[in-house]
Amino acid sequence: MARLLIVSNRLPISVRVDRGALSLTRSSGGLAAAMRGPHERHCAVWIGWPGSVASLSPEQRQDADAALAGMRAVPVHLGAAEQHRFYDGFSNGVLWPLFHYLLDKVNLDAELDWEAYQRVNEHFADVVAAQYTPGDAIWVHDYQLLLLPALLRRRLPGARIGFFLHVPFPSAEVFRILPWREQIVRGLLGADLIGFHTAGFRRNFAASAAHVLGVEPGEAAIEHDGRAVALGVHPISIDAAEIERLAGHPGVREEAARIRAEARGRKIVLGIDRLDYTKGIPRRLLAIERFLEREPELRDHVRFLQLAVPTRESAGAYADFRRLVHEMVGRINGKYGTTYATPIHYMHRSLPFEQVVALYLAADVMLVTPLRDGMNLVAKEYAAARIDDDGALILSEFAGASSELAEAISVNPYDIGSVAAAVKQAIAMPLAEQRLRMTALRRRVATHDVHTWAQTFLDDLDRAAPAAPAVAPPSRRGMPESVVESVRRAPQRVWILDYDGTLVPFAPVPDLAAPDEELLALLRALSERDRVHVVSGRRRADIERWLGALPLHLHAEHGFWSRPKASDDWVALEPDAAAWKGEVRKILEDVTRRTPGTFIEEKTVTLAWHYRTAEPELASQHVRELCARLEARIPMDALELLAGAKVIEVRPRGVHKGRVVPLILDDAPARAAVIAIGDDRTDEDIFAALPPSAC
């Protein structure tokens, strides 16, 4: 039976030794809560780190692994030093601040941490591959495992692999400062589906992939390595029904009433956050200070409650941050407190979720002002808990939730004046307006809950990569071993090879794509026994200059020109018909003037517009414009547009690489193995013209 393999940095179960006895504790929040449903409904296996087991004896560790197996959990054991470099060093010292735009906190000289990050991702890949059976779906989670999809693709080429990013993906300009940007983009593109919270995060990733790898910046999918990688928007949510149930529980409502009674009629403005620098607590405190300064008549009528949940307590930077927040709270309370009232009630601890829901019920205003956040479920939890349809939500425009929760009061968390004004607006909001806004918020959160989120992602993964029977594993040569063996045993071989992107990497300028000595030696050795045809879109002068001294059959300009192995003469397949070029050239020149980094290449019977070195987003926009203009102005019955790798080419109909295939096959020895290798759409014409027996 096909299963779901859930893979995350941490298991939702922690392993500890308590007074000599083994203890396994389930986590209650975050990803554990989001994935509880899929774990139960899909007979899923959860793979992740169970916490440090250094204090466990070998027998206890064996018992722990057996107990985890009974809970359908598989541990990935890590050494303490490696886990520290992987998690604290690279994941949270490099990726976390970078993805949240806090560039002054990014450690860009973390080579040893990067090496640990790679090793841990490899270790995860080994454990997942050992658990995998054909037909299983693999769902990888979050920024700690960005390399894992590609590592799994290498080990399990036929697997269905989904990846979901729970944090923001930054703009291409920010992401590109990362020294390891290419490895990370390639790692993610090993998935069949990459999920993001918002369309903006998806656009950022597509733009980053375009800049870093030169792929076309598709909105819903990216073509990479012969595969289409789907990009999805899947905003995570909460178990709204469970929160509503808790909000109606008598004990929770009694606790909420007690909190309100302690406020003595004051309006309660609530903040609940992990004590993390991305959550914007210092600027929120400055906004509260600004409110107290501006509104002296309201000081005795408002109580600010801030719950700061401890996180990453071992990190020195977080200890400094905690000290800063505590000092700010003390300073503001000292400035505006009285003998009978303290404006900010600050709690630095974790609370049971029932008490959190009681706080949601008690609060008149929810203040959610992260500097940057992937989603922020606190905002959604507050809406779900407001079963009386009252209350006001103030939400940072830089939280992913802001794209969904339009009825909240939107603020820029960096603008403390506007946040202070929003607090005043919220506490003065008429009940009718509160109910109008909150009813819409609660309806949306209830409709798009965490169960819908998970099922929608899995449905999209099935569409992106339908379950398929296992295929032959690839050899080190990149093709199934059975095909390699068939080619090896053939008495004679005919090779049909593309040039750019196949024999040589793409170059920013065509003249820089000359072959190196290693490639020339390889082609010379190959041609001693086999027939080798190079079929290129290049001008014949380029192909002649680079490969003319080798004993090869050469075909230039998509097969319009051919030069047999034993000849120095090029032969045209048909007379030149270039009367159309003048009008097309004018259009290409106009677009080139407006698109820096592009240029026109003229061949015998074609015109090509290259945009490899142009800014990807602008080039993508102008490609659409260019194609529309050309299709409106040129005779499409006689000419056609060809979209290649960062190039648009106009050519007469019938001029394509596939035209040379019949000539090659007519001259091929009987029983010869025919192998064609290409990399882009122009090579599809070759493949279409080949017999079914070709490779």
Automatic annotation (TrEMBL):
Broadest EC class assigned to this enzyme: transferase
GO MF, any single term: alpha,alpha-trehalose-phosphate synthase (UDP-forming) activity
Domain of life, per lineage: Bacteria
Keywords: Glycosyltransferase, Transferase
Pathway it works in: Glycan metabolism; glucosylglycerol biosynthesis
Residues annotated as transmembrane: none
Catalytic activities: ADP-alpha-D-glucose + sn-glycerol 3-phosphate = 2-O-(alpha-D-glucopyranosyl)-sn-glycerol 3-phosphate + ADP + H(+)
Zinc is among the record's keywords: no
EC number: 2.4.1.213
Family of the protein in this entry: Belongs to the glycosyltransferase 20 family. In the C-terminal section; belongs to the trehalose phosphatase family.
Role according to the record: Involved in salt tolerance by producing GG-phosphate from ADP-glucose and glycerol-3-phosphate (G3P), an intermediate in the synthesis of the osmolyte glucosylglycerol (GG).
Protein name (record): Glucosylglycerol-phosphate synthase
